Amino acid sequence: MSEAPANFDEMYAEGGSVRPAYGGYCEWYDQQDPSWLKRKHREAESNFRKTGITFNVYGEDEAEERLIPFDMVPRVIGAGEWRRLVRGIEQRVSALNAFMYDLYHRQEIIRAGRVPQRLFQNNAAWLQQMVGFTPPGGVYSHIVGIDLVRTGPDEWYVLEDNARTPSGVSYMLENRETMMAMFPELFSQVDVEPVATYPRQLANSLAACAPPATKGKPTVAVLTPGIFNSAYFEHAFLADQMGAELVEGSDLRVMDGRVQMRTTRGFQPLDVIYRRIDDEYLDPLTFNPDSMLGVPGIMDVYRAGGVTIANAPGTGVCDDKAVYSFMPEIVEFYTGEKPLLPNVQTWRCADEDSLAYVLDNLEELVIKEVHGSGGYGMLIGPTASKKEIATFRKKLQATPENYIAQPTLALSTTPIFTNSGLAPRHVDLRPYVLVSPKGVDITPGGLTRVALKKGSLVVNSSQGGGTKDTWVLKD
């Protein structure tokens, strides 16, 4: 490698030997001509541009639509390692859904004193309209993304829960398709679990949650805000792959107690709506009256059992980083077990003692907004300027309840391809989880996001990160 790894390197052990999971890949890689690999690297970028795999960056004057960089060195996870992760993910997702049911019903976990009432009392993501209502099939988060980071051989931590509308699955699928098109012989040498079945599994999982009003095979649609949304490519991609309808709010109306879709043969009822718009814009009669993206009256139909909305309104409460800090208690309360996947150590700045510690150690910590996402609104203490630290100090003192703090983790690295050879970069992992009355289904792999800048810990595409194919080896 051209650069020596400073943290746990997933491909190379100390001394430079290749770890077992990467044995097959490295054997293939070492046999390739470097100039051919460079051509393939350029070819991959060209392929992504032709396919139109881009995302929008809001608030930018230039280059609003950007290509997410793709790295062609896969991230490889052994079969045994993956099985351990699956057990931990299943446990956590089951606890999340049980927590949401409880939060909108008897709130036993609050009565038991395990979490404070303030967690949702002033939380805009908690919806009064969902109180006492159970979604069809009893599922709140049908599609979940659990962000994981690794710090050592057997040291995985949950960094974040995405229970509302986790994005990025289209990149997981396109990354694999690109790799298989460019290097078909590689997949004949290394036995990798497939990910291409995800759209079919998603369609089946959503159909299994169809409401009582459904007659015959459920009709499923993806509800998108439209072409100007940052994830529109993904909305269209998933609808196409699932064989589902792609609709905007203007295509739908409430008629005869059902949500119906405009077609060339008149209006036809929908059974399941995989919505990719936020709660606030879902129903102007219930939430934001100025919304032009949603469907007037959809919440009345939903509560009457006439349609399934996935993910359920109000699930965003579990994306809150203050709620995240209580996940060990939440997992234990609903499963009776200790978490198999631990949280990253977290200080809740709403607590006086924690705030005092955080203010004394800003230079060493990562500070996050409890409602933040996409890498925005963060302070990474070790790389921040004195001015940035001073600004954040004022924010914390003014509204401490808006922030949590975590240690700066020594994230694992995997190599990326550069013109001068392989170089280590920090990564995280977002496995995708489907939940239905039939159980929990986890696609073997997920989206690996990689910080392409040397030394950077920020992997978000909106902050300059890229993606790579994630391989789970077969036994």
From TrEMBL:
Q: Which domain of life is it from?
A: Bacteria
SUPFAM superfamilies noted in UniProt = Glutathione synthetase ATP-binding domain-like
User: Taking every annotated instance into account, which residue ranges of this chain make up the domain Circularly permuted ATP-grasp type?
Assistant: 74-451
Output this protein's name: Circularly permuted type 2 ATP-grasp protein
Give the originating organism.
Answer: Pontixanthobacter aestiaquae
